[in-house]
Amino acid sequence: MIKKVWLKLPGTFRKSIKFLLGKKLYIAAYNKLFSRNRKLLNEDFYEFDYKAVYGDNWKQKYYEIQKDANLEKIDRQFETEENILILCDFLNKEIPEKKLGICHGTRTGKEQFWFNHNLSGNSYVFGTDIGEGADKYDDTIIFDMHEDNKEWSSKFDFVYSNSWDHSYNLKKMLSVWKKHLKKGGYLILNHTPGHNPSGTSQMDPTGSSSEYLENILENLGLETSVIKGVPKNLKLSPWIYVVGKF
Length: 246
Hints:
alpha/beta, Rossmann fold, 2 domains, two-stranded antiparallel sheet, 9 helices, globular
């Protein structure tokens, strides 16, 4: 009930609360408000059913929640430059020539910024985000990552995301991303304990164990492997990347 009331409040009011509480206290309160699904600690996969809860207007509600979450977390960066450098080393070895990549759910565009400054061969990477005003950030377009852009068919050397847990239909979305890969391209998905089913909420509706995520990619016909990353803290360890090669 509290969540529903909070999400209906004007964005300007919520920003005022954030200012009055201060960043640390606000984040603590916000995380408490969007409490995680601890009942799913031993599950391999979970997907919140928006349609069952919100009926025919479920997609509009999904967009509202995601756009609100984007505003609330606009100053918070999940991925790290250190880990993008690890991925750049991997991609530069596997694909020494020019690379074209896309990152989904990048908020302020840090991921593509780091890729663009560290990939070899005059490569280019851009990002997508559903948030309003996302296109004001460099190399970012406003786009629903579930959608199939026909112009992207077999276009990218790699597709990257740490935001796949914001999907309302993960398997369908990943099948779309596979279609956007060139033959020999890589699908790279960040996975931490926060991506598990116990980390789900209406804001992060999908959770999967790393093993189940690998299984999804294998069922799509991708050859899977795992790249070890560097965790930001003990709570987010292990920090890995589940990789699927087309």
